[in-house]
Prior knowledge:
This protein is mainly α. The chain is 70% helix and 0% strand.
Amino acid sequence: MKFFEIYLIFLKVILIIQFILITLRIQDQKHVVFLSSNILFKLSLGFFIILFFTLNRITEIDYWDQLIISFAGALLIYDAIYNDLPEVLALYKIEFNPYMIIPKI
């Protein structure tokens, strides 16, 4: 098996476990494990979308449409860093404002 296949299987297992834990109300959406797996999923999917549509040319889809689709990957990465990461750090009482150039220490 290639590395990315193992990684995708690992990601699927993590997401299934998280789905079961949330459904059974063992965890909630503010738990650090859920937020971390959410960040990992969004980053993975975002990078995959960007790389796939950058490296592959699909003749059935116009170039500008592919560019817009790859921008969706950038939005997923943005969402992971600017929305979910501050929630994880707030659980550990770390002040992080992603909109500031120099963070407070």
